[in-house]
Amino acid sequence: MSFTALARLKKRRLLVRWLFTFPSEQYSKHTYISENALLPGQVNTYYGWQQVFDATAYRDRIKSMSNSSNIEKINYIEGELRRAGLKTATQNFTAISSGKVISGINVFGVLSSPRTDGTEALVLSAPWRSKDGVTTNINGIAAALSLGKFFKSTDYTYWSKDIIILITDGGEVGVQAWLESYHDHKQSGIEASPLFLRSGAIQAAINLDFPGTSNYKALGLFFEGLNGQLPNLDLINTVVRVCRMSSNIPIMLRDSGRCYTHYDSGDYQSSFYNLITFMKYQALGHPTGSHGLFFRYKIDAITLYGQVDASIGNSYGFFEIGSLFPFLFVVYALELWGTTSDDETDLIPNSNHVQSSSPLNNETNVQSSSPLNNETNVQSSSPLNNETNVQSSSPLNNETNASTPLAYLRRPREILMPVAALVISHFAGFIIFFVVKNHFKFSQISSIFGIDGYLFTLAITTNISIIATLSPSPDWVILKSFILAFTAMIISCLSVLNFSLAVFISIIVVIPFSLFQPSTYEMIRYLELIVLVLISPPGILIISKINLEEFLRWTIMEYELLGSYFLPFICCLYWPIILVYVVIIFSPIK
């Protein structure tokens, strides 16, 4: 191995090791509340035991309606909101994703602010089903109804924004249908009835997910959104501060199992796990709750989830939940969201520390520059077809001197076949994308994998057979230079949109793409082929042991109904560059 190649390999190893320093407290800063935000804890709450009794009555009634029809449940929710004094409305929606029909009814009520003209609003939402899609969100809906009644019954006029109580059906599809109708901005194939009741521009949203009827041990915070979007950091910090200072509720980041109490920052292992989990959700572009769909409309949102199986002795119920939200809504109502610090891309290793994403973006940019550097080295090290020396003669005595090297040399480059290989590979990717998203029911979805494999194998054999029959054989160096530059461009652009996905892509492909090339030994070629198969989408799914049918179900649904770009990125960009490298390693050597 040359000195240059060894230096590049050591640089990449150093960059990968650098990632492991991010969870350390030495490289992060303490969380803080922006100077433009009202300090949490400076609000009096009047949520008492009468409201707890109301929430308990709602819980018992919702539990008894488990076998009732959706119409009866919606009528009950709408009737209770109307009796509390809120203006109410319902919305029917229907969506079809890969042959599966998703339908439901959303119901919501609007509490008009006594201090403003209704130009701004806050949303308190609760889905019918919990995030697992099976358990009924009984306590979450009961708490939302009790809070709606409490907000309306109070004689205090500190509400400076309207409050919308939203009960959604059909999971994320119901939230998407309501948001599209509310903003009159149809983006998906969801057919929904129009909304005849609206409020002002939504500034923030809190999603309640408290499944079951028992008490809870900790409060899980879910904040990752669709396509890797994140909320303002003040939104998360306010929840953490209020839970600790006022309600004394243990905090858990997602469902990590690690509870954070007052002045508890955890250890390196838990922080590392939190960062990896965060990067996984952001890279997949999968929203961790119904809140993740609000970010598209510039609305900061978060999901609060009741954790039952946390390893802690204390528990909390309706009183702590109800006491939490008057604090949060007063803070959010008075928050100057337009002037708060822009920390949307910060990483949260634990509840007390935050890590800026700027070093991570720098690391991604350095990783993306590696293919460009390697592309330059490949071009400069390729063999010349012409003579590199010329004979120089003296103008005085017409004697021929020794040959001298040229400063530069123009040489023709055959780019037709490299361009053809790129076009065929990406055309195969578009065909795979079309096959995946069209004309398949969920009962047939497993056969998509076999069809995609057949199309990809056909594209590989077509490329290799065309290249092998050409005379003279095309220069694989040009093809590798093209694909290295293309990979660097993808990683650089992706680091702006979804830096977690850019980091994973750079770690997976940079080293194989930089080192692999055609070899005279067949065994080396097939070893390189095995590595490329393992880092391809089918190989990654097999290694991770993910259920294929379930994975394809939610990726197709999120693309068709929610607008996720993960599926087209994998099919049309990532998978084709793997195919091109398979063509490179089987190219003939000049």
From TrEMBL:
The keyword Coiled coil does not apply. PANTHER family: GLYCOSYLPHOSPHATIDYLINOSITOL ANCHOR ATTACHMENT 1 PROTEIN. One of its GO terms (biological process) is attachment of GPI anchor to protein. InterPro entries: Gaa1. Residues 347-399 are annotated as: Disordered. Gene3D superfamilies: Zn peptidases. The chain crosses the membrane at residues 415-436, 448-470, 482-515, 527-546, 566-586. Pfam families: Gaa1. This is 24236_t:CDS:1. Residues 348-399 have a biased composition (Polar residues). One of its GO terms (cellular component) is GPI-anchor transamidase complex. The keyword Transmembrane applies. It comes from Cetraspora pellucida. Keywords: Membrane, Transmembrane, Transmembrane helix.
